[in-house]
Amino acid sequence: xxxxxxxxxxxxxxxxxxxxxxxxxxxxxxxxxxxxxxxxxxxxxxxxxxxxxxxxxxxxxxxxxxxxxxxxxxxxxxxxxxxxxxxxxxxxxxxxxxxxxxxxxxxxxxxxxxxxxxxxxxxxxxxxxxxxxxxxxxxxxxxxxxxxxxxxxxxxxxxxxxxxxxxxxxxxxxxxxxxxxxxxxxxxxxxxxxxxxxxxxxxxxxxxxxxxxxxxxxxxxxxxxxxxxxxxxxxxxxxxxxxxxxxxxxxxxxxxxxxxxxxxxxxxxxxxxxxxxxxxxxxxxxxxxxxxxxxxxxxxxxxxxxxxxxxxxxxxxxxxxxxxxxxxxxxxxxxxxxxxxxxxxxxxxxxxx
Length: 353
Known about the structure:
Elements: E1 6-8, E2 14-16, H1 18-39, H2 48-57, H3 60-70, H4 75-105, H5 120-135, H6 141-151, H7 164-179, H8 182-188, H9 193-213, H10 227-230, H11 234-258, H12 265-269, H13 273-290, H14 297-315, H15 318-347
Antiparallel strand pairs: 1-2
Helix pairs in contact: 1-2, 1-3, 1-13, 1-14, 2-9, 3-7, 4-5, 4-13, 5-7, 6-7, 9-11, 13-14
């Protein structure tokens, strides 16, 4: 969840493009808000919290996946780094969060096949990036990915195992990001202020309607389960998937036009998103067990937004984010790579006689 996209000034000196950092900064702030809203102890879909939850879940992870695809323009490099960046941390984090849940609840289930909490994102990104070099060779891969997304709710085995339901459902946004160019971004960012205002009003109104109408259960917006398991008819699932494809596109376009392009605090946060994404899940488990104080609506939601903001500030800070990155780099280099070299030596692989 980091990006290193430079821009070039007239002097020829490369400078970081802060717009994309800001984009990721605002997105990562939304993730703990979404999680804390759901587990805070007083969640109802037809409420302000329901609107917040639906709004975030119809576009935040889609936007993250879009940006990941946008910064995967070198498929060979994407494959080369996929294991270290995504699958290796996943393999370590599954038992770690097993321990967290066991410590808090006295019971937990250790399962690498069904990604716990929000770790599905690591599995999906590993698959997208590792196989990208092959996927782009498939003719019309983008429209095919959209067709598969629309049909995913009717395929029983596209569920939580290996995050297949989400992997398929978010895949079109990865491919849209991959095929998106700087020229496309420049064209998207030409909306006038009144266009943005109108688009924002329409998007918020639709999200309010979705939350309060409860036309589908809130679990639908996670895109992880077949329609039958949610009690949704096949035609309603397809219809809502169409809606849930258009809405994130609209939100992405809106944010591309209203977010600042200069250096700011969110652009700093956007360079350190993975530590926030992973570490806030520990706090989420604590919130799930103890809930927030709820004397009134103001205090309750102040706790949600306040704690989410604290998580973003603390976990994106230099000491924490650097420690997080160092920890996994150390385990990869000193643990995995050393073990790999030892096994090769023991088996005589890559050695001369």
